[in-house]
Specification:
alpha+beta
């Protein structure tokens, strides 16, 4: 389960990476920590409007949903979905065909359990630029968007810094992003992307355990720290 993301990139970085403008630029703020357990908004690009960057509530809700976000989340956690979870529900499977999206982040977090203690790691691109996570979205009754990120099987690099889960977010490079958003892309191609995601050059850094304390944010939150006996921050290369 992944329920914390980061998008610390400024507006100019995000627009330069995507080549797209924000639909509502005045609403954008860099956020070192986006907590999915709260009603948080994240930046996305959708199949329906691929020429702009929009905002969506993190936590997918059914198309045309009318009630509160928390009401739905208390009944069904929809922050992220594996392919198996999608297969089990028609309301999730349909957006995979027709309502795919790209969440823009600068990183995500993993957790390493050792000797009864939990240690957080921050995963980002080696060049520290923003990147895409594959997702699906819906349009709610009031016109707002909601979204849930997709997960795939983890790899040996992520396993080093995450022994609580066998999954990782679906990271999509620019070369695949347009295929992901293209309505002409068949569902079998989409499933193949999820099951066999392209590899990007990532880096992992251990960060301070204050990360786990609610309502604590500070400028050095994402900075690497040292833990005796734990893997240091490293880069992944093919």
């Amino acid at each position: 389960m992944f329920f914390r993301l980061s998008n610390a990139a400024d507006l100019e970085q995000v627009e330069a990476m995507s080549g797209l403008p924000f639909k509502h630029p005045n609403l954008y703020r860099p956020r070192m920590l986006i907590d999915g357990l709260l009603e948080s908004s994240i930046s996305i690009i959708t199949m329906n409007d691929p020429g702009v960057i929009d905002f969506a509530i993190w936590g997918l809700m059914p198309e045309g949903y009318k009630e509160d976000w928390l009401t739905f989340q208390n009944s069904f956690n929809s922050l992220n979905f594996s392919l198996d979870k999608i297969k089990d529900s028609i309301w999730i499977h349909d957006p995979l065909k027709k309502q795919r999206s790209l969440i823009i982040v600068s990183g995500f977090f993993t957790y390493l359990m050792k000797k009864g203690k939990l240690y957080p790691y921050y995963i980002s691109l080696q060049n520290e630029q923003p990147f895409y996570l594959g997702s699906i979205y819906s349009t709610l009754e009031d016109g707002f968007l909601s979204t849930g990120l997709l997960t795939t099987n983890t790899d040996n690099f992520i396993k080093t810094y995450n022994n609580l889960s066998k999954s990782k977010p679906l990271i999509l490079p620019e070369s695949v992003a347009q295929t992901w958003l293209d309505p002409a892309t068949g569902i079998e191609t989409i499933k193949n992307i999820i099951q066999n995601p392209p590899k990007l050059k990532l880096r992992a850094n251990p960060i301070a355990s204050e990360f786990f304390k609610k309502n604590i944010l500070y400028d050095s939150l994402l900075n690497p720290v040292h833990y005796e006996g734990l893997p240091e921050g490293t880069n992944f290369t093919d």
